[in-house]
Design brief:
Two copies of one chain form a homodimer. Helix content of chain A is 39%, strand content 21%. Chain A contains eight helices and eleven strands. In chain A, α1 links the parallel β1 and β2. The first copy, chain A, is globular, with a radius of gyration of 15 Å.
Chain lengths: 184, 184
Amino acid sequence: MARVLVPFAEGVEEIECLAVVDILRRAGVEVVLASLDGQPVTGRSGVTIMADAALNDVADEDWDMVVLPGGLPNAHILRDNPAVRKVVERLMRARKSVAAICAAPTALAAYGLADGRRVTSYPSCREEMEKLAPASVYVDEDVVEDDVLTTSRGPGTAIAFALRLVARLCGEAAAAAVRREIVA
Amino acid sequence: MARVLVPFAEGVEEIECLAVVDILRRAGVEVVLASLDGQPVTGRSGVTIMADAALNDVADEDWDMVVLPGGLPNAHILRDNPAVRKVVERLMRARKSVAAICAAPTALAAYGLADGRRVTSYPSCREEMEKLAPASVYVDEDVVEDDVLTTSRGPGTAIAFALRLVARLCGEAAAAAVRREIVA
């Protein structure tokens, strides 16, 4: 069974976070939703979501993928957190999957992981992406894949993003089955 | 400011529930997410979400809309809860809005509120809908509106559903603005 880590913090975009967890779990993937301290997190729209774990307790485990949801200040908190950076860099080195949506691709750009790659983000983050990763290629598509990296735009693209992550981990047939199940 | 009540219970579909709350709040609508006892609720995909209130403490307040999310057993628990039935029937009588998605339209059918109306639901609930509401007209569309009633199909249609609810409460321009904001 594939294992996916989803770190999240105050101001997380609820749809982006929960669509990823819900859709990956529907595909049989083990997902751990980890806040920095293990405490519940209140999202940008005021919904408080419980964490499965504290990030530092689980970050060093074996993961097949790490997914960074968007929403502010969540995306900035994740970007500036050493444990998030460490697990993202470790997975990239190991050629495991790294994914980010909305404002969170800016974290990957800040870590120097977007240069030389096709990427997208929330539209208003484009300038920041291009400044942080001048050698990246910014693409105006809902979901953009480049090798181990998957990026996406916002809450309205979160379901398509999550289905692409299922396809990556479990294959296209599994993603098609979940797509039918959720009537997408 | 419009006020919307979203009752939810164990097994709620996380995307359906949170897309409604998130998107309505982005439009400036006051949304109260009410569990039956005010305690947190664990959804069908294992995410635990805090409640804003206990249903019995708020059900008798003035509401412009009540929205029933899907997921099981949530939809059955809501259907069988007297306070849910009472507030749904009160809003229908007052010609306020009532909305349901996925398995939750079966609650409206069970209350006798779907007869004579165009409705939809999660595809596998169609037979139950037609049995409970033989005088309803079942429609295979993502979001179906008939007078004060709005119904929808599943997680994959939850964002379109929520945007229609914004249009109903705040107007088409507001819905278009939120649609752009969420990149839908």
